[in-house]
Amino acid sequence: MDLRGLEAFVAVAELSSVTDAARKLGYAQSTVTTQIKNLEKDLRVTLLNRGSTGMKLSSEGLLFLPHARAVLAAISEARQSVRGDELRGPMVLGAMESITSSRILPMFEYLSNLHPGLTVQLRPSLCAEAIEAVGRGDLDAAFVVDDRTALPGVRTEILCEEPLALVCGPRHAFVHQEVVTLDEIRATRVVGTEPGCAYRDRFELLLSRPDGEPFPIVELGGVEAIRRALLTIDAVALLPRVTVQDALDAKELVEVAWEVPFTVRTLLLHPESRRVTRKVAELLVAARKVAGEQTASAP
């Protein structure tokens, strides 16, 4: 099985185009086509079919793609092992938007200082999307916040417990209350992230009516949009404390006197179906170091 055939197949599968794959790999289109045909001849299956919107994976191609990626990753790792200590090349990661700036970017900074030749591609991913993408091999690893300690189809590494805070603007009536009840929260406006985020989904379940009708949370998407909204509207939001700690310290936002009755954790997910690569191992070391430092410095 020729390595160039695997590279050509993966490139076309990801780009849905022989032309774009040839440009990425630096080959002529005819060369890419020949490489894939030779691979299909070797495997005795059709891996790609031409459709109205470009090249599409056959059922056999869908099954073969994660294995092809794993082989290429293993070869890249083997090459790296004899080229010195510095990691090089791309690493594709998923991360929930709500923890990207506060948890993930500091870890990237630490990792890039150690390995400047490493290029990280970050893709916004909710938990369910991240599990599927890591399982398929589309992501080398992903960071999520979840209330579970193990997730199906992936290896799960617990980085830290993720403290949550119910926050509001400084003019909200809750600022002056020593204790706030769940019924009082139901009576005010609640803003939050989109569904699929564990702490938002658990919070919505707590607020929902006994007849099962979902509580109406105003979905604003990103944490920064939620923070800005709380300064101008009479509302509350449940967010990871690390994402609003600076605003709490500056008294731009105020923590509501309500105890969160559930626990979530920040997790690192990586493929269950293959061995831990050196890149993922280094990523895990960096993530644990940064999470540990942040936890130790938290008020």
Helix count equals 11
As residue ranges, the low-confidence spans are none
Mean pLDDT: 86
Strand content: 15-25%
Any idea of the CATH topology of the largest domain? D-Maltodextrin-Binding Protein, domain 2
Query: Care to count the β-strands?
Result: 12
Distance between the termini: 56 Å
What's the main sheet like? 5 strands, mixed
Bulk shape: elongated
Order of helices and strands: HHHEEHEHEHEEEHEHEHEHEEH
Fraction in helix: 40-55%
Judged by helices, strands and strand pairing, the structural class is alpha/beta
The CATH class of the largest domain, by name, is Alpha Beta
Radius of gyration: 23 Å
Q: If classified by CATH, what would the architecture of the largest domain be?
A: 3-Layer(aba) Sandwich
- How many separate domains make up the residues? 3
Question: If you had to describe this structure to a student in words, what would you say it looks like?
Answer:
This protein is α/β, with parallel strands linked by helices and 299 residues long. The chain folds into three domains: 3-81, Winged helix-like DNA-binding domain superfamily/Winged helix DNA-binding domain (Arc Repressor Mutant, subunit A); 89-161 and 264-297, D-Maltodextrin-Binding Protein, domain 2, CATH 3.40.190; 164-255, 3-Layer(aba) Sandwich (D-Maltodextrin-Binding Protein, domain 2), CATH 3.40.190.10. It is built from eleven helices and twelve strands. The chain has helices spanning 3-15, 18-25, 29-43, 59-81, 97-114, 127-136, 182-186, 198-207, 223-232, 241-249, 278-297, and strands at residues 48-51, 54-57, 89-95, 118-124, 141-146, 154-161, 164-168, 189-192, 218-219, 235-240, 254-255, 265-271. A hairpin with a 2-residue loop joins β1 (48-51) and β2. The longest helix is centred in the first third of the chain and has 23 residues, at 59-81.
